[in-house]
Amino acid sequence: MYGYTANKEDYLKRLRRIEGQVRGLQRMVEEDKYCIDILTQVSAATKALQSVAIGLLEEHIGYCVAQAVTAGGPEADLKVKEASDAIARLVRS
Q1: By the 8 A CB rule, do 20 and 81 touch?
Q2: CA distance 58 to 4
Q3: CATH number of 5-92
Q4: Which residues of the chain have a pLDDT value below 50?
Q5: pTM (global) more than 0.70
Q6: Cβ pair 59, 79 in contact under 8 A
Q7: CB burial class (10 A; 0-12, 13-18, 19+) of residue 70?
Q8: Of 21, 31, 40, 49, which sits most exposed with the smallest number of CB within 10 A?
């Protein structure tokens, strides 16, 4: 079981919506829509993905990292490092 398990269906709904947004972007390019309109939709899809990422990160820290820290030992250090690396990737993107 993972931290996001309780909200799995919500995440799946959001990801399906994002998938639809990306398909819409493909259509816009195929139909030669205005550049700025496409960029606006790219920005919306990017923000939606970032929102999913932040939610998953919060759930990871609140569940996986918290459990590992409670248990202690090298697993705790590993989970904290994983979370730190994930945050760094999100900040760079």
Answers
A1: no
A2: 9
A3: 1.20.58.1000
A4: none
A5: yes
A6: no
A7: exposed
A8: 31
